[in-house]
UniProtKB/TrEMBL annotation:
<keyword id="KW-0805">Transcription regulation</keyword>
<keyword id="KW-0862">Zinc</keyword>
<dbReference type="GO" id="GO:0008270">
    <property type="term" value="F:zinc ion binding"/>
</dbReference>
<feature type="domain" description="BED-type">
    <location>
        <begin position="5"/>
        <end position="57"/>
    </location>
</feature>
<keyword id="KW-0804">Transcription</keyword>
<dbReference type="Pfam" id="PF02892">
    <property type="entry name" value="zf-BED"/>
</dbReference>
<dbReference type="InterPro" id="IPR003656">
    <property type="entry name" value="Znf_BED"/>
</dbReference>
<dbReference type="InterPro" id="IPR036236">
    <property type="entry name" value="Znf_C2H2_sf"/>
</dbReference>
<keyword id="KW-0539">Nucleus</keyword>
<dbReference type="GO" id="GO:0003677">
    <property type="term" value="F:DNA binding"/>
</dbReference>
<dbReference type="InterPro" id="IPR012337">
    <property type="entry name" value="RNaseH-like_sf"/>
</dbReference>
<dbReference type="GO" id="GO:0005634">
    <property type="term" value="C:nucleus"/>
</dbReference>
<dbReference type="InterPro" id="IPR052035">
    <property type="entry name" value="ZnF_BED_domain_contain"/>
</dbReference>
<keyword id="KW-0479">Metal-binding</keyword>
<dbReference type="GO" id="GO:0009791">
    <property type="term" value="P:post-embryonic development"/>
</dbReference>
<keyword id="KW-0863">Zinc-finger</keyword>
<protein>
    <recommendedName>
        <fullName>BED-type domain-containing protein</fullName>
    </recommendedName>
</protein>
Amino acid sequence: MATTKSKSLVWKHFEKFDEKAKCSLCISGNILSCSGGSTSALRKHLFSVHNIKLDDAQEAKEDTFQVILISKGFMPPKSHSTISIRVREYSLQVKSSIKQELAEILENKARFSTTLDEYTSNCNRRYMNFNLYLKLQVWILGLARIFNTMPAESAKGILESKLEEFDIHLNEHVVAVVTDGASVMTKMGKLCKPIHSICFAHAIHLAVCDVLHDPKTNDSVEILGNSPGELNEELHDQMLHDDDEICDPYNIDIIFPILKHHLNLVINKVRIIARLFRKSPTKNDILQGYVKEIRNGKELKLILDCKTRWSSLLTMIERF
């Protein structure tokens, strides 16, 4: 049985022999015709039977990247493991270069400030990210994995370990530590010898959230769930009721609470709609059908904001 290798993404799911192709996803191993090298029937099979739609533009882009690499004298990696090995080797080179640069700076008795922040990946794994600063210079020290719980003492230990990887000692070479205003970070700052400062931008973010994330309207969102019809009636009645109460349009004590209330109503209505399409693949497929008509076949999904993710509220509203 002679197999033929092809660059097309179709052949990730089919095994070719002669003028036929066997589907590797079908239990029965369906065999389809691909005479003349045509893949139309194979693509149709993947979409109708397995709901797999191959992106021709992405496939062409990948082929272009490979041609560029080869023209520059590089060979494209053969597997994911090869890419992983090369990335790790390069990261060691970068780390060694940073250590050498920092060592030269320390010889001149310079001192640094550092920032750290917790990050949760899409795989629900927790990490701590570290940056080092000297005037206008910045060094990204990378991530440290967080296992189990992380009290203030553990957070300090993780910080010290990461700095020591670059021959930097917290109490000797660092003059300031900047974190967000989380309680564990505040407590950790009290345990550190360097000055602890809470991020000013994070304080502004919390102030904005205090205005635009109203607990009362959030409660109504959770209760109503995926029932936007009921919400529409409630919002309409509430707005009419509020309008009746406005007697003096120039009274600042009335304008701003009402403005905040209406902003929250609109924002939470956007959240309900975004959540509705995120939770229902069927409804989202219908929506994407209209989106692709407008965007020349490209999908654009609604975004749901997260209170702890900076600017996600703006991104959600802009996408909506």
